[in-house]
Each structure stands twice: as C-alpha cells, then as structure tokens.
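Good morning C.,

I know you're traveling, so I'll keep this short. The sequence:
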Amino acid sequence: MTPVPLVPVELAAMADADGLVRVADLRRYGVTAREIARWSASGVLKPLVRGWYSLAQDDDRSAWERRRHDHAQRTRALVLQLDGAAVASHHSALVMHGLPTYAADLRQVHLMRTQDDHSRRRPGLTLHRCVDGAGHDATSVEPAVAVVQAGLLGSAVSSLVAADAAVHRGLVTTDALDEALDLLRGPGSAGVRRILGHVDGKAESPGETRTRLALTLMGLTLESQYAVTDGDFLAVSDLRVAGTRLLVEFDGFVKYSRADPYRLERCPSDVLVTEKVREDRLRELGWVVLRIIWSELDDVAVLRRRVERALALADATAQTLVTLGTPSPVSGL
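The tokens, ready to paste straight into the viewer:
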C-alpha cells in the first residue's frame, strides 16, 4: 500500500467530518494558492470538484471500495457546493446510503434538484429535475426512491440488486418501493416494477440476487437461505431449487490466499477450506451443490447447461436415496 502523506494539523482542523476541505475556508485562513497546489501535488489534498478537496486517507480498502468512497466524496462536495439546491439521487444516493450498485458509471455523479424542474448534464455531473413528493434529507433522496431511479437510469437489474440489500438491511419495505414506483411512473417504469416483483430480503449479496433472478427466469422455483441440518451440523445455502436436492451457491471468486503468512486472523484460504468441509458433508447427506461464478451470469447458455446437468444429478441422487431407503436429513428454516 502506498504511504499516505502526513496531513498538516491546520488542514485536519478545517476539514469536516467526512474529510472535505473547502478552498474558500483555506484562503480565508491565509493559505496561498501555491500551498494548496503543493499539498495537492504531494497527495495531502485530493481534488474533488471546483472549490473542494478531500484529505488523504490511509486505509486498506479494495480498489472498488475506494472508487465508491471517491464517488461519495465527490457527491458530498457537489451537494455542499449547490447549497441545498440539490441532493444525491440515482446510484449516487445508493452509494450515500451504503447500498450496492450494479452496472453504474461511478465517474458520473447524479443529483436531483430540490425545487425546480430544469435538468442539465456535463462530464462528471447530471442534475435531474425535482420530483414532487420524492422524500429526501439534506444530502440524499430516500432509499426507495434511489432504488427505482437507479433502475430507470440503467439496467432494471440494478434496482433489484439495491432493493434486495435495502430490504435485507431494513432500510425500505416493499410498500415503500411500490410508492416510489408510483411516484416515478413513466418510460421504463413498467420494467423496473416487473423486476422489483422479485425482491427478496433474504439475499445477502448482489451475486446472489443475480443468480436468483437468472434461475427464476429459467422457470425454477427457489427457496432463499435454505438450511440443512443433521444433528449438530447446520449449513445454510444461498438457494435451493424447490422440490429437489439441488443447492445453489454464488461464488464471488475471492482470492483464496493469505497475503501475509504470518498473520493469524481468518483469511480467504481458511474460508475455502471451511467451505470444502461443509460441501463434503452436504454431499454425504445426499445434496448436490452447484457453485456459480460471475462470468456464468453473463452467459445464459452455459449457465442453463450447468443447471440442467446439476438437476439431473440431483434427481439421480434422490432416486438412489429412495432405493437405499436413506431418510432425508432435517432441513429448512
């Protein structure tokens, strides 16, 4: 990780709680343009939008997490710059609420005006017209509105990914989503409404949401967070194909290695070993486990073939268990 330059005390004192620094405050304090340029060149200050910088931060976030953080900082700066005339909307509001985005261009900040109906766009910023009745606080539209807006802006799937997470975390209800859909009725809203009919607050990741949607569109009936127990053994699978012995897991394909061999805390390789032991036990109990990765979600033909083979294997396994007279394990929560 690249070392972060030390932040001068006076800069830290003038930054707000989110680490934003306004140039006007620096100049009022007597900081010269040359000093600001030097701090920016050294990495102490990071330019966001005209008139605003953020302090350098030392963290171990992933590249994707840093992009989300940078987007949130630019969004905050633009909201402050417009001084109450606009709030974060669409995927920018999702980021502000800590909700996942899908297929979103984080180079572009989206804001909604709070009073007038004029919209405009320039590189880095889209200002949308005010939507009467859309709830918001000082910085962002409410989560349900942001969920629907995100789907109207790009892929409807982005609405479902965000909605699953928002319902899971208790930030929205299905009733709130219905109200937001009514509020934002217009071109594209029928598609967003249709896909939001598949909301499932049990989903625990965007990949799980996309997997469930893909299999549902293939005509399968699914049960989320399906639990299999056997004595003191408990395994909760992302999905079960109803009426079968097929369990489906989404695999985010994390790096299964230990970056520092001398660190003792749990790392991805430990997770891999645990998952293998868990799946071995499930197979011993007569379950078929199908793992799906990101790339397969974008290749429906490949995914369908794998699912069909897994279903055939699950059916054969069930027939074998019936022949052997093996009782089914207690399952389902």
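Safe travels,
E.
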